[in-house]
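Lab meeting, action items carried over

1. Structure of the two-component assembly. Owner: GW. Status: complete.
Input record:
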Amino acid sequence: MIDPVILMVCIASATIIALASAAPKWREPSRFRASLEAFALLPSFALTPLSFAFPALEAAGAIGLLFADTRTLSAMVLIALFTLFGAALAINVLRGHTDIDCGCSGFIAARATERAPKSIGWWHVARALMLAALACAALAPATARELMWLDYSSAGACTLFAVAAWFTLDALLVNLPKLDSLRNS
Amino acid sequence: MMQTALMISAALSWAALLALGAICLALVRQVGILYERMMPAGALMIDKGPAVGAIAPVFELGDIAGRAVKVGGLSNSRRNTLVFFLSPTCPVCKKLLPLLPSIQAREGATDIVLASDGEFEEHAAFYRKTGLSQYPYVLSQELGLSYQIGKLPYAVLLDEAGKVRAKGLVNTREHLESLFEAKERGVASLQEFVHGKHDDHAHHEHEGQVGQHA
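Predicted assembly:
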């Protein structure tokens, strides 16, 4: 049982973050396909259909999360997607295959140039699992209490903060390989 | 009811505060790594031409616009002179030229002289295009020869007494500023300063170890 305000924050921020990370995959399907290929886990015939299916599921899950009727199913879809993604990242990190683009950093990575150094690491795995945990929180039942204006303002402000903090972490994560490449140059 | 709402709001604020603290730490760490990996390198000094500390040869030249320019010798107005050797065909020079006014404003009491040699027409056209008419542009093979300029862009900083205070190959703003920094610190080049500091450091460490053993 969690407080309805915290539930609202979890749902809203999960929706915004999932939509923001699905958008660049829609805009540049070829780039996402290249990322999937770099993971070296899928047979080549599955790459193109999945490069459309994953962003579609992600966006549908994000929007479905907002409505009470579809919330459980959508949360399940998102949890499955993010866990799968985390597992795929973990396998590649364990393989030592870390110099690939994770295709995950939302619009921050979309702005980065092609030449910018990219790599994946345990931080990316943790990031995917955190997203899964956020979607998990949306499944928790809310305590019944009467909401007042302060609750709505808390939920709104906290959602904004959570999304901003998330994108800041993303930017820090994108900067890590750039810092590393400075050492090697 | 209000109490619950306030409690939730305070709890969320604390969570946000903690998250912000963690983000700040991560940011500061990245900035720290950045500083460490982008330490100032200083202009590359090439051991040719008048040495740092030596009196620079004095040249009385005329610039492209016909103004009389004195490079070297005692400055009556007690100003430094930054001689910037360039060529219209050098891309790094073009990148550095727009920075000269702001460097002059920052360093103060410094005259800047642009120096090159070659075809008058080519240089006159280049000079017009740069829009830096406030700085004299001299064409003199002797000036370049006396400092033995081999690579461009090269800069020499002369002090008010006409002594060479710093010189080197400059590729970035940081390199240009390192010449002034070297003059202020009284060292021949920032490279020598950084290097010398490290040596001192190692020396002290060594002494410390000896002390510990004793």
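2. GW to write a short summary for the group page. Key points so far: The beta strands of chain B are 59-62, 68-71, 80-85, 110-116, 137-139, 154-158, 164-169. The helical segments of chain B are 2-37, 91-96, 100-107, 120-130, 141-146, 173-185, 190-213.
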